[in-house]
């Protein structure tokens, strides 16, 4: 998979270059739009909050001594620990990142309380906006609590290191590219709530009955994801109403935020040993590898919001800048898709080496990430014997997975069955030493019989004319092509060419 770290950026201490643009949203006429929306917020946003009596609590999802008694609580904790023992380390690291995001809750209402009109000026205002901020914060507070308690009970985490990370993140805060504009902040929160719901939902799926088998953790993550979906619906509705009220301002605000990328709130994550963009990128790469949050998810969220807010259909009320913003946004998913494809192609065409990354949250147990190894230019150029779509033997070696035996990239092992994108079946494959009488079929429907790789040079018999013997014509199979000893044996009318690997 391509890495979502494509979207990582360093913490900025300088003034954003678009400051004047978002400040234009603080003029009275823009703020009046928000004031007029308060009755609508009362009727359409506040109902998405649950009452305290109807809400779940962390003790509902974890062993509770009040309900189980001392012996029952002890037995339930042992059962929880046994199930947690099967969760892979990669998912544990992603769980910490999710939990730290939730535990940094004090930062998030402080962002909303900076917004004109929306903010809770006294801490107990009775406006619909203020009651939403407090109610949303109260529901979010349970998320970090339940994940934190699970992690304590599981015994699989160095909780002091995790707690230090939480404190660092709350202390360091988060960067908002337009910190006082409700239009811009609501774009961010709508996107982020959906991203968080996806991350928790993917975690529930990966650790559940069809994954690691931890039913308790799957239930916790699924419950948190359900809350996040309600919160996403609230902010998506709210931003949708702003698109109706002032489409030009809304589409320009969305384009402004997407040009600067939507980073996770943990972009400043710091475990006390490492900090900065590289540290964040490392954990984004782990999430990509584990499948809890990926670049594809980022693109799908953008596509969803563009559809929800009808960005492509906007017509009346757009200025020149608004139309340019609309064009940019509508083209952006395709650009991200192309980035995914290029990253995937790069992954195939480059050598990778495993790098062990010790993670303090799990007692310095290492996580394996693949890092690129430079490839000699002569390997990357396209020789005449490449497949018709430009892929070479190097691509084939990097893409095939082996079933029924092993594959040694240095010497090769005979007798394996190799399956590729469309299936590769046949005899033995010996990479970097030779392909002897094998049949390779699949990625482009190519069948090769005969031929040999010796040392660092490739010998392939090729039919020079229709007379005399067979040979190999790419795209179909011919028989009679053979190499013997240190020299290539050719039938009359045939010729042999060689190419450096």
From TrEMBL:
InterPro entries: Fatty_acid_desaturase-2 (IPR005067), Ferritin-like_SF (IPR009078), RNR-like (IPR012348). One of its GO terms (cellular component) is chloroplast stroma. SUPFAM superfamilies: Ferritin-like (SSF47240). One of its GO terms (biological process) is fatty acid biosynthetic process. Keywords: Chloroplast, Fatty acid biosynthesis, Fatty acid metabolism, Iron, Lipid biosynthesis, Lipid metabolism, Metal-binding, Oxidoreductase, Plastid, Transit peptide. Signal peptide: none annotated. Pathway: Lipid metabolism; fatty acid metabolism. It comes from the Eukaryota. This is Uncharacterized protein.
């Amino acid at each position: 998979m391509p890495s979502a770290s494509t979207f990582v950026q360093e913490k900025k201490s300088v003034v954003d270059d678009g400051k004047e643009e978002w400040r234009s949203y603080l003029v009275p006429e823009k703020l009046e739009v928000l004031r007029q929306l308060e009755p609508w917020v009362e009727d359409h946003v506040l109902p998405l909050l649950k009452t305290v009596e109807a809400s779940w609590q962390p003790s509902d999802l974890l062993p509770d001594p009040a309900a189980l008694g001392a012996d029952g609580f002890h037995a339930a904790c042992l059962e929880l620990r046994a199930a947690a023992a099967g969760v892979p380390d990669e998912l544990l690291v992603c769980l910490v990142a999710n939990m730290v995001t939730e535990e940094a809750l004090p930062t998030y209402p402080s962002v909303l309380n900076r917004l004109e009109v929306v903010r809770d000026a006294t801490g107990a205002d009775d406006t619909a906006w203020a009651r939403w901020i407090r109610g949303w914060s109260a529901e979010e507070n349970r998320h970090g609590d339940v994940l934190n308690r699970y992690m304590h009970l599981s015994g699989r985490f160095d909780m002091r290191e995790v707690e230090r990370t939480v404190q660092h993140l709350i202390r360091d805060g988060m960067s908002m590219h337009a910190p006082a504009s409700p239009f811009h902040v609501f774009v961010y929160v709508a996107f982020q709530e959906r991203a968080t719901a996806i991350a928790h939902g993917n975690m529930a799926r990966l650790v559940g009955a069809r994954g690691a088998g931890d039913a308790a953790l799957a239930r916790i993550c699924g419950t948190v994801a359900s809350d996040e979906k309600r919160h996403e619906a609230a902010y998506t509705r709210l931003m949708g109403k702003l698109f109706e009220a002032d489409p030009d301002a809304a589409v320009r605000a969305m384009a402004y935020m997407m040009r600067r990328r939507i980073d996770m709130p943990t972009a400043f994550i710091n475990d006390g040993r490492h900090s900065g963009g590289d540290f964040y990128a490392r954990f984004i790469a782990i999430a990509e590898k584990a499948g809890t949050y990926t670049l594809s998810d980022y693109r799908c969220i953008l596509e969803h919001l563009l559809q929800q807010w009808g960005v492509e259909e906007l017509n009346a009320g757009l200025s020149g800048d608004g139309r340019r913003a609309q064009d940019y946004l509508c083209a952006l998913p395709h650009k991200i898709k192309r980035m995914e494809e290029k990253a995937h192609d790069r992954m195939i065409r480059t050598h990778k080496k495993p790098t062990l990354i010790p993670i303090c949250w799990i007692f310095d147990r290492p996580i394996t990430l693949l890092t690129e190894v430079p490839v000699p230019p002569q390997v990357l150029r396209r020789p005449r014997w490449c497949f018709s779509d430009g892929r070479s033997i190097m691509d084939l070696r990097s893409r095939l997975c082996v079933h029924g035996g092993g594959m040694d990239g240095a010497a090769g092992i005979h007798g394996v069955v190799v399956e590729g994108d469309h299936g590769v079946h046949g005899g033995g494959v010996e990479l970097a030493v030779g392909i002897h009488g094998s049949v390779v079929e699949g990625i482009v429907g190519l069948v090769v019989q005969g031929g040999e790789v010796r040392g660092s040079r490739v010998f392939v018999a090729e039919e020079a004319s229709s007379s005399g013997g067979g040979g190999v014509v790419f795209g179909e199979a011919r028989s009679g092509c053979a190499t013997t000893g240190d020299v290539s044996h050719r039938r009359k009318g045939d010729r042999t060419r060689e190419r450096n690997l």
